[in-house]
TrEMBL record:
All residue ranges annotated as the Tc1-like transposase DDE domain in the record: 134-283
A matching Pfam family: DDE_3
InterPro entries: Homeodomain-like_sf, RNaseH_sf, Tc1-like_DDE_dom, Transposase_5
Molecular function GO labels: nucleic acid binding
PANTHER family tied to this protein: SI:DKEY-77F5.3, TRANSPOSABLE ELEMENT-RELATED
Origin species: Eptatretus burgeri (Inshore hagfish)
UniProt-recorded name of the protein: Tc1-like transposase DDE domain-containing protein
Length: 342
């Protein structure tokens, strides 16, 4: 609720002096009844309705300067709070103060990844099925040793809440996890690689690119495009130089866009089948071996372009609308709404 100005407070006191009730004054002033009552009490105790001195650091910006800050960011929505503090106040006002003033004006900083996703989809709007077939979609995923989704039910009688037979210990951190790497395209899939240790640029090159990616790209013909996200091991100079020297064409990929990758549906299938095994793995080594085994057992139809990659198919005969993408995920329809690019 906004604070009343001194003029509004004096007006409220004048209305009270003429016999108007506190409730009616609060309704006219657009504030709570307690606020008017506090003004009246303050007047009787101190002889004025002005605020009492309050502890805390005084404001470093005036009302006019606050309006200047807001106006600057309304004229240029991409200017940073730090640059505003330096240019308007010579660095005397911190970036956090600038952000506080902007939030008071209901301006909030937002990342513009959605626009980047939209532009990426625009660039690939007229890709045909053959174009998508030549893309090798790949990603890493983590799987935990134990799985608990919060939906565990226990059958018990009244009064057996704390009975030992009705209590199940659950490891909140999953009992350890393994990271795996896999890739698919319109006609084939790679092997599932279990990453050993931490995944950095050197490990990514030595455990994934050299033993698996290069043979896969060579075996399925020239002209393939390699897709990878913008994780640090993927964009490091070591990785970038290696892919360039190997002559591998890398697809430009927007930031923070896991839902654009159709291999996410494969990870979902892999996780569901892992949780359905009768004899679950007991350690990380067994977990990695079981993931590789399940990956091999998944029918090829799941990986086929028809089911996943062709979910991103285009139709050049349609107008440039959301109908271009009949997607496995609804994210393309979301980004192709013109209103979402504001």
């Amino acid at each position: 609720m906004p604070r009343l100005s001194n003029i509004q407070r004096e007006r409220a006191i004048g209305m009270l002096n003429t016999g108007t009730s506190v409730t009616d004054v609060a309704r006219v002033m657009g504030c709570s009844r307690q606020t008017i009552h506090n003004f009246q009490t303050c007047l009787h105790q101190t002889g004025t309705t002005a605020d009492r001195p309050r502890p805390g650091r005084p404001r470093v910006t005036s009302r006019a300067q606050d309006r200047q800050i807001v106006l600057r960011h309304l004229r240029n929505r991409f200017v940073t709070a730090t640059s505003t503090g330096n240019e308007l106040f010579g660095g005397r006002v911190t970036a956090q103060t600038i952000r506080n003033r902007l939030r008071s004006a209901r301006l909030h900083a937002r990342r513009f990844h959605r626009r980047q996703h939209f532009l990426w989809a625009r660039r690939h709007l007229r890709w045909t099925q053959r174009d998508w077939n030549r893309v090798v979609f790949r990603d890493e995923s983590r799987f935990t040793l134990t799985f608990a989704d919060g939906r565990v039910r226990v059958w018990r009688r009244r009064g057996e809440r704390n009975a030992q037979c009705c209590i199940q210990e659950v490891d909140r951190f999953g009992g350890g996890r393994v990271m795996v790497w896999g890739g698919i395209n319109g006609h084939a899939r790679s092997r599932l690689i279990v990453i050993q240790g931490n995944l950095n640029a050197a490990a990514y090159r030595d455990q994934v690119l050299v033993p698996e990616l290069l043979p896969f790209m060579a075996a399925h013909g020239p002209g393939l495009t390699f897709q990878q996200d913008n994780a640090r091991p993927h964009t490091a100079n070591l990785t970038t130089n290696f892919l360039r020297d190997a002559g591998i064409n890398v697809m430009e990929w927007p930031s923070r866009s896991p839902d654009l990758n159709p291999i996410e549906h494969v990870w979902d299938v892999l996780g569901r089948q892992l949780h359905q095994v009768r004899n679950p793995p007991q350690n990380l080594q067994e977990l990695g071996a079981m993931l590789v085994q399940i990956w091999r057992r998944i029918p090829q139809a799941v990986f086929r372009c028809k089911n996943i990659v062709l979910s991103m198919q285009t139709n050049g005969t349609l107008a440039p609308t959301e109908a271009y993408f009949t997607t496995y995920s609804s994210i393309y329809r979301y980004y192709f709404n013109p209103l979402s690019c504001n």
